[in-house]
Amino acid sequence: MIVPLLSGIAPMADRYDGFILDLWGVLHDGQHPLPGAVDALERLHGAGKRIVILSNAPRRAAAVVRRIAEIGIRPDLYDALLSSGEATWQWLAGDGKRLGRRLYPIMAARDDNMLEGLPVDVVRRVEAADFILNTGVESAADRVEDFEAALVAGVGRGLPMVCANPDLMVIHAGKAEICAGAVALRYEELGGMVHYFGKPHPPIYDSCFELLATADRRRILGVGDSLRTDIAGAEGAGIDSLLVLNGIHQEELAGGDLESIVRRTGVRPTAAVPSFRW
Q1: Which of 106, 142, 149, 160 is the most exposed place for a label (fewest CB within 10 A)?
Q2: CB half-sphere exposure, 2, CA atoms < 13 A
Q3: CA Rg value for the chain
Q4: Cβ neighbours of residue 265 under 8 Å, at least 6 residues apart?
């Protein structure tokens, strides 16, 4: 069955009561709201739909809310926001305490709020750590191989890694940047063990369902630009999905068609749109 290509979200709006929306690549590009995104949010909100923004941002939810408000996505346009960073922080503050206190960070300075209030001590040598906290890289110039020595040392000591963002890459103002998931994938290739938080892993969807308060999962739609995280996550959670094409897969789509990519990945969305617009 060929994935239906729609002009916008309007043809699907009446079929669903709850919406789980990705953030980066759907609502904004890291600097500005994407064209039509705020209008679509306003129309869904005005129609009484429940909206949860689900982001693989590796920082606390309150920080994400503040940031997207600064770039034009107002808090009154959605009901709740959940981030992979928030899920990570909550786990580290609870069950994650069993990992130990000494944390080796693979972390950008902008993600420092992930450490606030946690019972941890930051160490600068892998040899002194109990575990690795991986939230992502500092700049677009960073590459996975830049962390090879630390990753090899961590695997050698049997350190678990906590990954606060399963994404492999993101498009930031038109340029590709690696995310924490790319570093975590290399750690696994070397034989390391990784605790993942965020899409596509099921626990974060369970939290979204609680926030949506929509009992019938057939009336919930997951929207995102990544087959690997957003669409696979929705599929694993038992809900329909809408793929936004003008995001992480835009270069692949420029050189091929959606059906070939869907067949290769084995992940099929319910429908697709060029961008998140009404």
Answers
A1: 149
A2: 5
A3: 19
A4: 227, 228
Read off the pLDDT of residues 56-105 as tens digits, 9 standing for 90 and up: 999 999 999 999 999 999 999 999 999 999 999 999 999 999 999 999 99
Distance CA 226, CA 93 (A): 29
pLDDT tens-digit series, residues 218-244: 999 999 999 999 999 999 999 999 999
Six token digits for residue 130 = 């109990």
- Tokens 């695997």 label which residue? 155
pLDDT for res 227: 93
Q: What is the phi/psi pair of residue 135, to 5°?
A: -105, -15
Residue 56 to residue 86: CA distance in whole angstroms = 9
DSSP 37: H
Query: Residue 177's pLDDT band (boundaries 50, 70, 90)?
Result: confident
Contact indicator for 56, 199 with CB cutoff of 8 Å: yes
Q: What are phi and psi of 271, to 5 degrees?
A: -160, 175
User: Can you tell me which residue has the tokens 């079929």?
Assistant: 15
Amino acid identity, position 146: D
pTM over 0.85: yes
- Of 73, 21, 64, 32, residue with least CA distance to 212: 21
Instruction: Find the length of the chain.
Output: 278
Contact between 205 and 82 under an 8 Å Cβ cutoff? The reply is no
224 - beta bridge partners? 243
Dihedral sign, Cα of residue 32, residue 36, residue 39, residue 40: negative
Peptide bond into 200 cis (omega under 30): yes
Query: Between the CA atoms of 211, 215, 218 and 224, what dihedral angle is there, to the nearest 10 degrees?
Result: 0
- Distance (Å, whole) CA 231 – CA 239: 9
**Helix, coil or strand: residue 195:** strand
Residue type, 63: A
